[in-house]
Write a structure and sequence with these properties.
heterodimer, A: 96 residues, alpha+beta, 3 strands, flat, B: 488 residues, Arc Repressor Mutant, subunit A, nine-stranded mixed beta sheet, three-stranded antiparallel beta sheet, 17 strands, 40% helix, elongated
Amino acid sequence: MIDREQVVHVAALARLALSEAEIDRMQADLQQILQAFEALNALDVSDVSPTAQVIPLATVERPDATEAPLSRDDVMRNAPRVERDQIRVPAVLPED
Amino acid sequence: MTTPPGYRVVIGLETHVQLKTASKMFCRTSAAYASAPPNTLVCPVCLGMPGVLPVINAAAVDLTILTGLALHSEIPPHAKFDRKNYAYPDLMKWYQISQYDLPLCVGGWLEIDAKGETRRIRITRVHLEEDTAKLTHVVGDDGQPASLIDVNRSGVPLMEIVTEPDITSAEEAMAYGLKLRNILRWLGVSTANMQDGALRIDANVSVWPIGAEVGDTKVEVKNMNSFRALGQALDFEVERQTALLERGERLEQETRGWDERAARTVSQRTKEYAHDYRYFPEPDLPPLEITRERVQRLAEQMPELPDAFRQRLTGELGVASADADELIEDRDLAVYTIDVIERHAGPAAEVVTWVLQDVRRLLNARELESDDMPISAASMAQLLALRAKGELSSTMAGTVLEEMFDSGKSLEEVVAARGRQISDTDALADIAREVMAANPQAVADYHAGKDRAVQFLMGQVMRRTRGQANPGKVTELLRVELDRDRGE
């Protein structure tokens, strides 16, 4: 069961401002999605090893070589505001 | 500072290390951001554009495994990357690619010397992640508070080394940090400079009354950008927590930043949910299978580590402990010194003193790094041999060194131009007599009991020989000649 409090918590983490009606709807939607996944619990997976990936690939690496970066103009193209060659955003608290 | 009576101090350290790779962790953009103007080392991957595909830098994985091996970690055959989600503008993607439950290195230890005894600090894990963009908090052009983002640092390979809470004082934390820094430098995995942010040590500190059960409340202390700051911050934090407990108050779980100017830790207001990271396996990166062959190959690349090197210096080579400690802080200089020692017939201590004093003074004065050493170990050994044989006085050797440093000329060229030390008794006696004949007043002074007159005459001999006369010999000869003069 996903409760209302959990929806509010997850929304806060994702910086989403949800209206009361949206919270209700999300709670119902998420509940349904989780229920769908519950079906997996019925399976016996005791002899299946855990995996974090469904693609049959492992150890995809590249050599440590460099390529030219983007021009600064391109880097800044989507910036909401530019100041001193940097992306300016509203002041944020120092955080870890 | 010592542990307050009646309490125990529990400290665990988390050390972030920027790896010395050419390119970033997951893209081919150069990682040499330190000297680059803002936002000039950025590509769609490290800018976090939608639809890009990160690819793991093999060298960063190798350097992390190498570090794990040096710290006696186990290197499990399976590793993977995970997404650590948090909303803060130093992350372009709003998540950091890190490692959660399958890090590259597990367990291990590092031995430190604390108050004369050896203590083993257990390592929990060593994992690999990406560095974040750099934020600067400013007053903007419009007078409003703003944060500025430089994305250059975003995606630079960052290794994190986590200890168990085995450290019991600020001194031990500093001993651990210094030792770890030296190892990282000797491995060549990082510059490990704290001032540049290539080495960042955060601490979890808890003070507990003895007898009370140790709980899980801990204070995270950050923002120390030197070993001195690390020591001061931890001393302050231990005192602060002890005072709190003395007053019967409870410790609060929080993050505190070290304020260098105020010399105190300050609570950092963090968002309520800051530590709810919702890790999940990184879908863009297939897991890593670390073959035993790869681990073996890296183990074979393991260079001599500072502990073994230090032992070699202080043991068979008889170098003083303090000199050895000083030398191992600079791997390039240490390796160079050993090279000279092996070519030098005299005592090793002679070479070490010469390198730590004369050579390093020149390196500093010319703003050269130790790996820019302009004189080969072979030439340096020859120069020291000339000094040992008395063909160059100490002063002359210093002058020759400086000229070789600055002109790039060979030892032979410089010595041929400047001449060797004159130690020949007959030649020096001739010059002594000439100088005495030319300075009758000084001779009279000497006979009148003014011993300082010898110094004056000595200066005259040096002048005539352009500094090449053997000073010990000249003093001896002058006294012989002067005394014979009196006898006549």
